[in-house]
Amino acid sequence: MNIDFTRLITPEARAAAALAERRAGMVCSRLQGRLVLGPDVVARLDAIAADPAEAWGLRETIANATEWHRNSQTMAALAWVLGITDEQMDALFEAAMQVVV
Fold first, then answer.
1. Which of 41, 58, 73, 99 has the fewest CB atoms within 10 Å distance of its CB?
2. In whole angstroms, what separates CA 32 from the centre of its chain?
3. How far apart, in Å, are the Cα atoms of 99 and each of 17, 36, 69, 73?
4. What is the pLDDT of residues 11-45, one digit of tens each?
5. Which domain covers residue 78, as residue numbers?
6. Residue ranges with strand state E in 1-101
7. Domain-located, residue 47
8. Distance CA 17, CA 12 (A)
9. Domain total for the chain?
């Protein structure tokens, strides 16, 4: 007896899996991300990077990362510090990946 287990997967589970797969491929350059964020948020990022009270790894990522990966723990930390939701991060990466520089 063969059972088709794919029918047992809920639509919500399929959507979550599709989102996770999409996020895994979200990568942009630092410049693409900064251009999409705009001058106000970039000024906040630069202030964090310059603040010795902030975590060293976070400061180094802001200042020196050449690529931003959506699933990076550092990107999650940046989003939290900046008050950016998961949906906004998705939109940021989707927009940034479209910027041609």
1. 73
2. 12
3. 26, 8, 15, 23
4. 888 888 888 888 888 999 999 999 999 999 999 99
5. 27-96
6. 27-29, 67-69
7. yes
8. 9
9. 1
